[in-house]
Automatic annotation (TrEMBL):
Pfam families: Aldo_ket_red. Signal peptide: none annotated. Keywords: NADP, Oxidoreductase. This is Aldo/keto reductase.
């Protein structure tokens, strides 16, 4: 798998290309901070921006895209339906609210943020409606374990195209990744740096010396070579640029295997089965 271009990506089941690397905007303030970070990311080559209604920064993200020199159709824009908005009608309203805040006519991808019991199937039906009516180019889920996916797939018309999960060397969940690959569900990583904990560990020390790359760059490259889309978050220009400098090297297979071997089933964020909905 040759991954050498920030503008390229993995092809989803319906033929839409999802860029390998995106800018995460979780905890970015809905002011000039997020506007500037989105504009800068687009300026240096990012073409994938990830937000969510619960981040409360969709207005700023939309302004950043609009004020950039990049055409809307060249940006892969993602948002998510929050837990309190789940259900059929409320999901459709959440979508309208999101595109109004983002000042766009359509989304490239919309995700069910968490598998809220007794609601996510109705939420999914609403996303299917949006997809069938060309309001969104792709639909997917976030934080869905295999049993959630299997339950959803029993009744859905359209299998999720994406599953965005916490993913890093201490939480590989290879069985879930394999299940998604088998069912052509694109895996995507949130919190690839373990909410910053990665930088306090020595797990990449030898690899940083071997490849002359930072720990962050090693981990992001590992994500991509695992076939996983990744969306590191930052509002700092130097880090946004550094995170994108991962297309000029390739990890050896044994180094990928080494990072896989660190899996501890250890989460930095909530467990999908125990999240306080």
């Amino acid at each position: 798998m040759k991954i050498t271009d920030i503008n390229a990506g993995f092809e989803l089941r319906n033929g839409v290309t999802m860029p390998y690397l995106g800018l995460g905007t979780y905890q970015a303030e809905n002011n000039q901070e997020v506007i500037d970070s989105v504009k800068y990311a687009l300026e240096i080559g990012y073409r994938h921006i990830d937000t969510a209604s619960v981040y409360e920064n969709e207005e700023g993200v939309g302004k950043g895209i609009k004020e950039s020199s990049v055409a809307r159709e060249d940006v892969f824009l993602v948002t998510k339906v929050w837990n309190s908005d789940q259900g059929y009608d409320s999901t459709l309203k959440s979508f309208e609210d999101s595109i109004n805040r983002l000042q766009v006519d359509y989304l490239d991808l919309i995700l069910v943020h968490w598998p809220v019991q007794e609601k996510y199937k109705e939420t999914w039906k609403a996303l299917e409606y949006l997809y069938e009516n060309k309001k969104v180019r792709a639909i997917g889920v976030s934080n869905f374990l295999q049993h959630h996916l299997e339950d959803l797939m029993m009744d859905c018309k359209i299998i999720p195209m994406v599953n965005q999960m916490e993913f890093h060397p201490y939480l590989v969940q290879q069985e879930l990744l394999d299940f998604c690959n088998k069912n052509t569900i694109q895996y995507e990583a949130w919190s690839p740096f373990m909410q910053g904990k990665l930088f306090n560990l020595d797990i990449c020390k030898e690899l940083t010396a071997k490849y002359n790359k930072s720990a962050a760059q090693i981990i992001l490259r590992w994500n991509l070579q695992k076939g996983v889309v990744t969306i590191p978050k930052s509002v700092h220009k130097n880090r946004i640029a550094s995170n994108a400098d991962i297309f000029d090297f390739e990890l050896a297979e044994d180094d990928v295997a080494y990072l896989d071997s660190l899996d501890r089933d250890e989460r930095s964020g909530p467990h999908p089965d125990h999240f306080d909905f």
